[in-house]
C-alpha cells in the first residue's frame, strides 16, 4: 500500500512566480512518474488546475476573513490550524511544503523546500518583522523528523552554514528548470499569436527585458542607473520593459524612474500571464537580471530557452545556473552593467555565441530529474 503525501499547494494559485512555478512543475512531474502513492493538494482558494491523475486529490480549505486584521493573519491561521487539522484527519504519512514552513505543533514527518535564506543573507530586503517571522517559523519547522530540499548547491551550503545542526545527507537538491516546450525562440512560436501579443502590450521592435517581482533584492535601481548611462551616452534609445508583480520595491522604483528622467524609456507591464510570457521573452533584444541574491533564478534560463542573450549577476546561485552561457557582472557596479549592455547591443558575434550557448544551457536542468530525486528520498524515508 502506498503512502499518503499531503502538500501545501497554495502557490498553485494564479500569478505564479518562482515558488509557484517550482510547486506546479515538480508536482506535475512527480505525478507523471509515481502512480503508487496518493497526493492530497491543500489550498485555501480554488485553483484552476487539474493534473488529471487518479492518485491526486485537490482539497480547498477556505478561510473567511472579513476584517483587515483577520486578512493579515489569514495565511498563518490557515497553515497552523486548518491545514494541520486536515493533515491529521486525512492520516497523511508525510507532509510536503514547497514553501519553507510546516504547521506549528505538527508532529508528523515533513519534507520542506527551503529555496533560499535571503532573509538572513540580504536582511535589508526585509522588514524587521519579516526577518523575525521567517527566522522563528523556519526554526520551528525544522524540529522533528524533517527532510530538506533546496534548489541549488549554493542554497544548500547556505543552509548548512546557518543551521549547523542539520546533517548534509538530509539536504537534497531539486533544481528548478525551464519548460522548453513553452519557452523557445521566436521562429518556433505561433507567429499569428505573436502579432496579437505584440499589439496587446504595445511591444516595440527592439527592447531590453527584465522579468521578476518588483522588490529590493531584484536590484532594479542599478539597472535603471545603467539605462540612464546609456541615455546620456546616446548609445541606445532601446526601451526597458519591466515585467512582474508589484512588490515592496514598486513605489521606490517609480520615484527613481522620475528622478532619472526615464519615463519615456521604461515601461511597466505588471504581471504577465503564462500564455503571453514566452512571446515577451522571444521578442526581446537583451535580457538583464541584476538580482542581488537568488536561491536559483528561473528567468535567466527562460530567456536562454527563448534565444535571447543574458546579462546577469555573479552572486549567489546565479553563476551555478547560467554557467558560461551568460555575461555575469557585479550587480552593484552600474558602470560595468552599462558597459556590458552596450557591448551586447553592438557585438553581433558575441550575441550569437551567447544565444547558442544559452539554448544548450536551458536544456541542462529538467523537472523530471528533480521529481526523481524527490521520489528517491520519499522511497528511502522509513
UniProtKB/TrEMBL annotation:
<dbReference type="GO" id="GO:0009103">
    <property type="term" value="P:lipopolysaccharide biosynthetic process"/>
</dbReference>
<feature type="domain" description="Glycosyltransferase subfamily 4-like N-terminal">
    <location>
        <begin position="18"/>
        <end position="181"/>
    </location>
</feature>
<dbReference type="GO" id="GO:0016757">
    <property type="term" value="F:glycosyltransferase activity"/>
</dbReference>
<feature type="domain" description="Glycosyl transferase family 1">
    <location>
        <begin position="203"/>
        <end position="359"/>
    </location>
</feature>
<dbReference type="InterPro" id="IPR028098">
    <property type="entry name" value="Glyco_trans_4-like_N"/>
</dbReference>
<keyword id="KW-0808">Transferase</keyword>
<dbReference type="Pfam" id="PF13439">
    <property type="entry name" value="Glyco_transf_4"/>
</dbReference>
<dbReference type="InterPro" id="IPR001296">
    <property type="entry name" value="Glyco_trans_1"/>
</dbReference>
<protein>
    <submittedName>
        <fullName>Glycosyltransferase involved in cell wall biosynthesis</fullName>
    </submittedName>
</protein>
<dbReference type="Pfam" id="PF00534">
    <property type="entry name" value="Glycos_transf_1"/>
</dbReference>
Amino acid at each position: 500500500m502506498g503512502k499518503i503525501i499531503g502538500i501545501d499547494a497554495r502557490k498553485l494559485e494564479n500569478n505564479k512566480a518562482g515558488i509557484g512555478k517550482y510547486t506546479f512543475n515538480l508536482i506535475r512531474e512527480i505525478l507523471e512518474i509515481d502512480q503508487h502513492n496518493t497526493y492530497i493538494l491543500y489550498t485555501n482558494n480554488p485553483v484552476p488546475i487539474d493534473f488529471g491523475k487518479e492518485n491526486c486529490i485537490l482539497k480547498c480549505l477556505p478561510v473567511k476573513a472579513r476584517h483587515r486584521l483577520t486578512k493579515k493573519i489569514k495565511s498563518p491561521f490557515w497553515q497552523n490550524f486548518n491545514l494541520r487539522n486536515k493533515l491529521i484527519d486525512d492520516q497523511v504519512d508525510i507532509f510536503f511544503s514547497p514553501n519553507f514552513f510546516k504547521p506549528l505543533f505538527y508532529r508528523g514527518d515533513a519534507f520542506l523546500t527551503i529555496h533560499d535564506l535571503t532573509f538572513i543573507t540580504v536582511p535589508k530586503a526585509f522588514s524587521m518583522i519579516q526577518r523575525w517571522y521567517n527566522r522563528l517559523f523556519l526554526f520551528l519547522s525544522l524540529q522533528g523528523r524533517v527532510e530538506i530540499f533546496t534548489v541549488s548547491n549554493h542554497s544548500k551550503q547556505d543552509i548548512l552554514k546557518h543551521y549547523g545542526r542539520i546533517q548534509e545527507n538530509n539536504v537534497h537538491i531539486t533544481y528548478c528548470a525551464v519548460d522548453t516546450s513553452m519557452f523557445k525562440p521566436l521562429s518556433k512560436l505561433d507567429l499569428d499569436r505573436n502579432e496579437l501579443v505584440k499589439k496587446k502590450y504595445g511591444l516595440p521592435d527592439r527592447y531590453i527585458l527584465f522579468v521578476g517581482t518588483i522588490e529590493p533584492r531584484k536590484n532594479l535601481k542599478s539597472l535603471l542607473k545603467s539605462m540612464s548611462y546609456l541615455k546620456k551616452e546616446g548609445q541606445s534609445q532601446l526601451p526597458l520593459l519591466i515585467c512582474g508583480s508589484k512588490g515592496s520595491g514598486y513605489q521606490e522604483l517609480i520615484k527613481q524612474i522620475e528622478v532619472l528622467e526615464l519615463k519615456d524609456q521604461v515601461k511597466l507591464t505588471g504581471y504577465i500571464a503564462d500564455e503571453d510570457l514566452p512571446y515577451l521573452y522571444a521578442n526581446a533584444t537583451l535580457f538583464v537580471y541584476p538580482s542581488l541574491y537568488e536561491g536559483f533564478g528561473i528567468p535567466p534560463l527562460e530567456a536562454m530557452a527563448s534565444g535571447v542573450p543574458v546579462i546577469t549577476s555573479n552572486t549567489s546561485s546565479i553563476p551555478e545556473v547560467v554557467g558560461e552561457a551568460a555575461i555575469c557582472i557585479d550587480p552593484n557596479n552600474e558602470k560595468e552593467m552599462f558597459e556590458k549592455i552596450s557591448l551586447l547591443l553592438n557585438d553581433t558575434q558575441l550575441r550569437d555565441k551567447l544565444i547558442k550557448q544559452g539554448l544548450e544551457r536551458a536544456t541542462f536542468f529538467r523537472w523530471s530529474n528533480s521529481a526523481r530525486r524527490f521520489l528517491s528520498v520519499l522511497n528511502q524515508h522509513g
